[in-house]
């Protein structure tokens, strides 16, 4: 391709690291967000910090937009190159640099697959809790950028809770380090925690240090079945109010159950309105005590049946079914729109009722699943983007759902980020002054608005 920009990039980092054919550019024009696509001018797969600095310095000289990208599993358009320019692909920086058993930490590059971190540390009897649903594909750099959660977020927290330090490249190609491996560090502003969830709009990570904890000794997994999803939703608050925090507390509605069973065929009943997948872990005596409380709470809130996984194999089958919720739903219609709203746990029944009412009012199919233990729900619409009239109804339904979440004291995104798709809802949630403050922060780091432009704000700070 006779493109001067591409030729200069190839001279800087090597020809094999620069992608520029039409087919290649198309592959990096979208992420896992439907209805959003923009082609870049070039894609650079960096393999080292040196590559990273060189590309950013070149982009600074040429005034080019830069969009960082990991595996492209994002669900709010965060890695879509809205203003073209360079997609900076970090999947080639995929080393696990050090697992420190003495200090309970791990140092990794941004392109490491999240599940590979789990495997590496668990082999040493350690535990990295954050487990986003896409963990077998997603990269840790993307997890930090979106402050990803996961099934274990209720008990153990999310990605930002495990960040110790970050090496970060700014848009001008300069490098800055935030934080230390110390558990306690209050020197200056806590920029390490701040960077989690900035969606690639402030800096690009080159090295990430994460806190680890000891691996839980044992666990017990429950499957609770309900004839009414409202009873399932009430059970969530009932368990928490009994002072028990399960490691996992997941909800699936009837639409999702049907699709999952069609896909993975593990024997989930098709005649229930909802199920809860619950797990408690830790010391054997604690697990025994918590299991008794969980059982009492489920049965007190009209669980039809409560089953305990008889062994590790059955437990893993149930969690595999849950992790396949999105892919199972996506098999039904050409377009799957997965959203995420979070509300206070006592408000889950009202939120679930609103989701169902919206689906009925606008004559669309929505399957809902999610991390009910922390109030995070994923209303997922099965539709067809070619049907413009139906897509309009889908948008109207989500307007209702997001407005309800905000009115209940919740948020428009618990883990997917704002990106492109949620930008129009953010002012309604936080107000104009908060938006102004965010834009001032963005401008301090990126005065020209070249790093991942077009994200979070309706009009990117310039």
Automatic annotation (TrEMBL):
<dbReference type="InterPro" id="IPR004113">
    <property type="entry name" value="FAD-bd_oxidored_4_C"/>
</dbReference>
<dbReference type="InterPro" id="IPR016171">
    <property type="entry name" value="Vanillyl_alc_oxidase_C-sub2"/>
</dbReference>
<keyword id="KW-0274">FAD</keyword>
<dbReference type="InterPro" id="IPR006094">
    <property type="entry name" value="Oxid_FAD_bind_N"/>
</dbReference>
<dbReference type="InterPro" id="IPR036318">
    <property type="entry name" value="FAD-bd_PCMH-like_sf"/>
</dbReference>
<dbReference type="InterPro" id="IPR016169">
    <property type="entry name" value="FAD-bd_PCMH_sub2"/>
</dbReference>
<feature type="domain" description="FAD-binding PCMH-type">
    <location>
        <begin position="36"/>
        <end position="215"/>
    </location>
</feature>
<keyword id="KW-0285">Flavoprotein</keyword>
<comment type="similarity">
    <text>Belongs to the FAD-binding oxidoreductase/transferase type 4 family.</text>
</comment>
<dbReference type="InterPro" id="IPR016164">
    <property type="entry name" value="FAD-linked_Oxase-like_C"/>
</dbReference>
<protein>
    <submittedName>
        <fullName>FAD-binding protein</fullName>
    </submittedName>
</protein>
<dbReference type="InterPro" id="IPR016166">
    <property type="entry name" value="FAD-bd_PCMH"/>
</dbReference>
<dbReference type="GO" id="GO:0016491">
    <property type="term" value="F:oxidoreductase activity"/>
</dbReference>
<dbReference type="GO" id="GO:0071949">
    <property type="term" value="F:FAD binding"/>
</dbReference>
<dbReference type="Pfam" id="PF01565">
    <property type="entry name" value="FAD_binding_4"/>
</dbReference>
<dbReference type="InterPro" id="IPR051914">
    <property type="entry name" value="FAD-linked_OxidoTrans_Type4"/>
</dbReference>
<dbReference type="Pfam" id="PF02913">
    <property type="entry name" value="FAD-oxidase_C"/>
</dbReference>
<keyword id="KW-0560">Oxidoreductase</keyword>
């Amino acid at each position: 391709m006779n493109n001067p920009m591409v030729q200069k990039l190839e001279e800087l980092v090597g020809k094999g690291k620069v992608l520029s054919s039409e087919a290649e550019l198309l592959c990096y024009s979208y992420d896992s967000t439907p209805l959003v696509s923009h082609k870049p001018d070039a894609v650079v797969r960096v393999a080292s910090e040196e590559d990273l600095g060189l590309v950013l310095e070149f982009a600074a000289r040429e005034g080019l937009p830069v969009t960082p990208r990991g595996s492209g599993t994002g669900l709010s358009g965060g890695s879509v190159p809205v203003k073209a320019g360079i997609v900076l692909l970090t999947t080639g920086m995929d080393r696990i640099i050090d697992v420190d058993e003495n200090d309970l930490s791990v140092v990794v590059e941004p392109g490491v697959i999240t599940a590979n971190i789990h495997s590496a540390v668990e082999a040493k009897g350690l535990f990295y809790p954050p487990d986003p649903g896409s963990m077998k594909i997603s990269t840790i750099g993307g997890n930090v950028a979106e402050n990803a959660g996961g099934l274990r977020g209720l008990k153990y927290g999310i990605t930002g809770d495990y960040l110790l330090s970050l090496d970060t490249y700014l848009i001008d190609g300069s490098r800055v380090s935030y934080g230390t491996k110390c558990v306690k560090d209050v020197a200056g502003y806590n920029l390490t925690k701040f960077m989690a969830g900035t969606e690639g709009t402030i800096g690009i990570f080159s090295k990430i240090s994460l806190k680890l904890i000891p691996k839980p000794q044992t666990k017990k997994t429950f499957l609770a079945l309900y004839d009414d999803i409202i009873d399932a939703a009430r059970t969530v608050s009932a368990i928490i109010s009994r002072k028990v925090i399960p490691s996992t507390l997941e909800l699936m509605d009837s639409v999702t159950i049907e699709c999952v069973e069609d896909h993975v065929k593990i024997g989930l009943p098709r005649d229930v309105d909802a199920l809860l997948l619950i797990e408690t872990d830790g010391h054997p005596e604690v697990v025994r005590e918590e299991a008794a409380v969980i059982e009492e709470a489920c049965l007190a809130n009209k669980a039809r049946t409560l089953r305990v996984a008889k062994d590790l194999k059955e437990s893993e089958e149930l969690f595999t079914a849950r992790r396949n919720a999105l892919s199972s739903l996506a098999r039904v219609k050409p377009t799957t729109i997965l959203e995420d709203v979070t509300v206070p746990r006592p408000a889950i029944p009202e939120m679930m009722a609103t989701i169902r009412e919206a689906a009925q009012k606008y004559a669309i199919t929505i399957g809902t699943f999610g991390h009910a233990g922390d109030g995070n729900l994923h209303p997922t619409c099965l539709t067809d983007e070619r049907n413009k009239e139906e897509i309009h109804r889908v948008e109207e339904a989500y307007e209702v759902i997001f407005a309800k979440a905000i009115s209940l004291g919740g948020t428009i995104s618990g883990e997917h980020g704002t990106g492109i798709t949620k930008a129009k809802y953010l002012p309604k949630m936080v107000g104009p002054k908060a938006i102004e403050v965010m834009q001032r922060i963005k401008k301090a780091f990126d005065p020209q608005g070249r790093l991942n432009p077009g994200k979070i704000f309706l009009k990117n700070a310039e």
